[in-house]
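Changelog note: in this version the structure field was regenerated for every chain. One regenerated record is shown below for reference.
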Amino acid sequence: MMKFKNILRAWLPFAVVTTALCALVYVSVQHTLRHGANDPQIQMAEDAVDALNSGSPLESVVPANKVYFDKSLAPFLVIYDINEQPIAGSGLLDGQLPGLPDGVLDYAKQNGENRLTWQPNASTRVAAIIAPYKDGYVLAGRNLREVEKRELQTETFAGVTWALTLLVSLLVIAFNEIILVDKKL
């Protein structure tokens, strides 16, 4: 029993450090992946706002190709009027321009922008940037399906690394305590 306590006492600091490092790596990579998923939409939203504020017609700002974003990974735009109704866009959900949850556009108006993960249905998550312009709002979005696959891979790699490191460190400490310490006696 004394050997077990000695092993546990020696192993616990390794377990804590391993857990902290694996968690740090996972959170850092996940954060980078998710925030990187916003990059095309930031540019799209800013360019659309500049064009609309300069007087460009909606038709020249909104891409002609329609994107069924519950299936496609292509980025899309949706323009909302001042009454928060969709009036033009390339992004379609169930064949229609999507409405947004209450408060999302208000937050963009108050803060100059809203960066969010939007889940319009059970199987679709979108990285969305919403920016106000003089006559309404611009939403630029993109399906997160591939980003979420990468996040899951990162979670798996971090979890396997964590478990293996804990196991190997426990075995090394136990070997040291049971075999090497006993031979010194």
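Spot check on this record: Residues 65 and 145 are 20 Å apart (CA to CA). The chain has two domains: 2-32+149-184, 38-143.
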